[in-house]
Amino acid sequence: MPIRNIAVGHYHEATQPDALRAALAEFISTLIFVFAGEGSGMAFSKLTDGASNTPAGLIAAAIAHAFALFVAVSVGANISGGHVNPAVTFGAFIGGNITLLRGILYWIAQLLGSTVACLLLKFATGGLVSSDSSLPFLLFFFG
């Protein structure tokens, strides 16, 4: 892999409308992924009285995360590439597909999106504790 493809970018890139629109797409898609995936795990745990670690609970969490990831990537695919995951953004930077400054914008948007999703879940559920069934999936995607 030639190192010449890696670019830092210019500081004016952070204020360009297309870069800000792409960062907003990453924020929204990550928010959707975390809210839908983790929210479904919390709902399954609440509905089944804590049976989220059973095989059925793990399958339900996997399917919920798969659908949430499909929707999240579909939302951002044409605008930002639909990274949703900071590791994917890092790979795109190393591969020379995005600049470092755009990657930093994406990382900030992704981390803020997941934080806002968790705060929304806390507010929407009245402080319900997160389930353990979706933890392996979140560690896989954000760990």
What are the salient characteristics of this protein?
membrane, 0% strand, single chain, transport, 143 residues, mainly alpha
Topology:
Blueprint: H1 17-47, H2 55-76, H3 86-94, H4 100-124, H5 135-142
Please describe what this structure looks like.
It is found in: Membrane. The longest helix has 31 residues. Helix 1 packs antiparallel against helix 2 and helix 1 packs parallel to helix 4. The model has no long low-confidence stretch (mean pLDDT 82). The chain is 66% helix and 0% strand. The protein is mostly helical and 143 residues long.
Mean pLDDT: 82
Tell the overall outline.
elongated
* Uncertain regions spanning at least 5 consecutive residues: none
What's the end-to-end separation, in Å? 25 Å
* Rg: 17 Å
Sheet having the most strands: none
Strand content: under 5%
Helical content stands at 55-70%
Would you tell me the structural class of the helices and strands? Answer: mainly alpha
Write the element-wise H/E pattern from the N-terminal end onward: HHHHH
Could you give the count of β-strands? 0
Number of helices: 5
Membrane topology: Multi-pass membrane protein
Family: Belongs to the MIP/aquaporin (TC 1.A.8) family. TIP (TC 1.A.8.10) subfamily.
Protein name: AQUAPORIN TIP1-1
InterPro entries: Aquaporin-like, Aquaporin_transptr, MIP, MIP_CS
